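Dear colleague,

Following up on Tuesday's group meeting, I ran the structure prediction for the three-component complex that the binding team flagged. I've pasted the input sequences exactly as they went in, so you can double-check that nothing got truncated or mislabelled along the way. The structure tokens for the whole assembly follow below. Feel free to forward this to whoever is handling the docking comparison.

Inputs:
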Amino acid sequence: MGKEHVDMNTPVIEMRNIVKRFGDFTANDGINLTVHKGEIHAILGENGAGKSTLMNQLYGLIKPTSGDIIVRGQKIEMNNPRDAIAAGIGMVHQHFMLIQPFTVTENIVLGTEPVSGIKLDMVKARQNVLEISERYGLSIDPDARIEDISVGMQQRVEILKALYRGADILILDEPTSSLTPQEILELIQIMHKLTEDGKSIILITHKLKEIKESADFCTIIRLGKYIGTVDVDTVTESDLANMMVGRNVTFKVDKPDMEPGEVVLEVKGLHAKDYRGVEILKGLNLTVRRNEIVGIAGIDGNGQTELVEIITGLKKATAGEVLVNGVNVCNKTPHFGFEHGVSSIPADRQKHGLVLAHSVEDNLILQNYKKNPYAKKGILQRSPIYSHAQEAVAKFDIRPGGSEKRPAGTLSGGNQQKVIIAREVYNDKDLLIAVNPTRGLDVGAIEYVHGYLVGQRNKGKAILLVSFELDEIMSLSDIIDVIFDGRIVSRVPGKEADEKTLGLMMAGGGKA
Amino acid sequence: MTDVINSLGILLFATLAYGTPLIYASLGSCFSEVSGVVNIGIEGMMTAGAFTGTVVAYFTGSPWIGFLCGGLAGMLFGALHALATVRLGADQTIAGTAINMLGPGVVIMIARVLFDSTDTIPLTTEQRMPRLLAGVFDTGTTFGRFMDNVFSTYASTYLVFVAVIIVWFVFYKTRFGLRMRACGEHPEACETLGINVLKTRFLCVCLSGFLSGLGGACVTMAISNQFRPISIVGQGFIAIAAVIFGKFRPHGALVGCLLFGFCSGLKTVLGGSSGIDTQLISMIPYVVTVLVLILFVGKSRVPSANGKPFIKAR
Amino acid sequence: MKKKRSVIEIISTVRFLHILLAIILGFAVGALFLTVMGISVGDAYGKLLDSVTTVKGISYVIVYATPYVMTGLSVAFSFKTGVFNIGAEGQFVVGSMAAAVTGILLKALPKPVLIPLCFIAAMAAGALWGIIVGILKTKWGINEVLAMIMFNWIAFYLSNYIAGLPGIKNTGTAEATQSLTENARTLLSKETISRLGLAPTANWGILVAVAAMILVWFIIEKTTLGYELKAVGSNRFAAEYGGIGVNRSILTALAISGALAGLGGALHLMGMGNRISIFSAQEGFGFGGIVVALIGCSNPFGALAAGLFYGALTYGGSKLNLVGAPTQLTSVIIGTVVFFIAISVIFERLGGGIRARRNAAAREDKQKREAQKTPPEAAPGGAPDQEKKEGEAK
């Protein structure tokens, strides 16, 4: 990729020897970063490496312990985001900073609202928003409420928010984490268009492919330390990976070929409505067999959430059947499904997977707290519960921070996920549903989770994998089912799948 | 017919009389809740306002200075609540409970000292809220009596409707209103846009104290014309209920308060004459509120960040 | 620096120390008010202390404390199960009235039958009051705080109404129910009272409260029911995912909470109260219960201790005007205590922050060490123990 837009003589951002300590913990330990005009500069690092901390300092959300921030040759003290905004810096956070019940216009102008007298001038605001969206070719509906628009649209609103404030340096924090391949392509196009206009972009990510596809330079951070800055054109993906993790990483999951066994899960003609009463599942069919991982690929909002909620008993279907080993578990309770062979690793481990205030040992018996030996006649039996927890902790390498009696909320994300996996493996059900099982985990934990999913498959379980990480789906699944608009539109053997056709089908492009 | 019109007049008068303090307090509650701070200390702030308003009017002879000071006294407790919840990140329910104990405790203690161990402070007509249109209507005719009942009500009642319009305007038509609502939904987002969440919330909680104080002052300066330790018995909680009822919108809360005032008015009109036990009649406002909730209102969408302390990273 | 940090950490971990600190500050603020009013702090606090440290005083404190311990337990239980039972007031009132009606209508029954009947009636009434709100919440999604405030008043007027009914109402001039007969009272025998020099209303209600406390503790800590209720209370989504019936749990929690408050009403009536008056304002036992639960850290044993503290201040406070100090001083003290408990989160945050950072640092250390090692490959067999062995082998 050429670097014709990059003006190497004009550094717009220089961060010099940035150190940020939180008490005893050093989140950033002497980090350097230089970004030039018109450049897309990636910052690569694992979860928890200190990328977001670094950017939050550039955006004035937190202050560096030491080190200098220089914007266009001038040293700037960033006390709050106002200073950053004034210096022409805009940030799009990974978790969107949007007010759900407000309109697009309201969200974009919030903080710099046009007024006439003491009254908000919403007519002018709307005009301004339309103008800027046209100027950058980012079309949006200014009157739509955020809660009603798609994730990709919400991201546009976030970018427009920064542009509206006159930002010419944009920080994008993990911008692709919930986008489809097509939306990612669009985003990359938008980014290039912006750099052509002379804007600079800092892209925080842990996805190597995107860096190769879009960035000019890449700065790598590991465990808070500055590892180096490289010209993206001169390195390979695996070079980047090794710099990020500090050792050789194999992304391939070792998965022996297996002959699938009998059908465990059979979903027939499933219909359901979403929380607004709009039909979201429109006659979905699906089968998963023993010794088989079926991956559901699709854009968020095409019914995968509802599908999982119905199988696990959290949601009612309006029509159809969910057979698990031949028993219809549809429109029963979560407990009924559990008793008939359904177990799951939920998408949101803190919301659905764990009672964070409860101890690790209590979380390990979540579905079984009433059963012998953990309870007798309604009385909890502490000693079997404790020894079960000790066993699980040892077997699954959970690090509960000293004691199995500590609240699950005090564990790291990876360890929380291990608690859930341990519980579900012990539950030993025929069907395991895993939804975004590696979201927010670092590379080591991801390898661990993938290993277990494959291991369970090898032991004869049927596994339904729902993930927004297409790479994850492609590397783990024996069969890939593409979901679009409430139906499975295509079924591809995992080995034959390629990203481009999958992406097309996910966007409703029909059969390949 | 005359009787009906008379009763209707009295009913409307009572609706406004009961409703007015509630409306002030619920406007206050709206500010606090919508900016993201649960304020169950409204009751304590009302008591402070009721007492201070009465005492100041008693000593200055001016109901208006009294009324204003009532608001300021409520604001003082509002500031205390804001200090605890906004600046120090305290549990909002606990802090509100503390305000509810401190408000009455402090003022009644002061009353006992000021008024020599009696805690009832009576007001003369001049010290009370004026009735602006008193004597304008000919009370000799049925129609005149009706008009007199409805329109020669206290100045504080006229004022409260102005206040509703102002608050509605502030909420939905001003920069401050937009930002305040944003703070109650997503404070982190506000912070990234350079909006000072803590300052905004602090101000909103203070405003909620001020309006609650005015509401309290209405009770003692317009309706009962004296301060007693039991002047404020539960109005603060009813005001909060009206806000939930009105889905955290000032105009919704107004409807809730008027409904409540109306049912309380029914109690006055029906009491004695209807043969129904007064205790059962007194229950009407509460039963009706529950029924209306079941039949018409249902779920109230609470502002997303309501009740969650916002703690700034350093 | 090191030392200062550890002090904060100690205070942050030991809840009891927060409370103690808050209580000391409460009395300090009270002293400030007294000084401003020109009343001797020594006189006032001396009177307070004197009045609650005699045998008679202690018996009064216990009598005063009993209903607050019960409503405190009720609110504490509700906090543990994720509901804010601001409705303990109404549950207390209907419980009290149910006990009164039972005691008056069935006064012919012998004491060992009548007293348990009164208790059961009170608990049933309180539970019903809780369940009604629970149904409004689970079936129609009505905010429980709003509904409870309404039902507190409905209970209040209902009680007033029943107190005025013929057959229940006092036959004399008093605006109250008939007095309970000896059969329905929990008073200690006259001999005991006079021999020990106790308060004339000294009763064994506190023993019931202590039993209730132990039961509440047992339910919360030791039973599957407690497991369910706590799970629903702290994360209803995970509880639902885990197969727990959320709505049923909410109803159960509110029923138990209501029964506790209702029983409190019965204990108050059958001990100290004797009869129920037609009131013009709520008595505030439920509200007091919220305060007691907060001071008691939502813990059943804490509720007992805090209830006694509350009872002591209420009783002692009633003697304050003997030294020219207003009784409201106690509200100021208690209000201040609660206020400081509210802001004591600062300690937790300071301490928690220190701990979190220490943990993070430890994690980082560990990560570094692990980064040196090669992690276990995905095990082909995938059995957990197998992978463990592989990991160890490397």
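The CA atoms of residues 44 and 323 of chain C lie 6 Å apart.

Cheers,
M.
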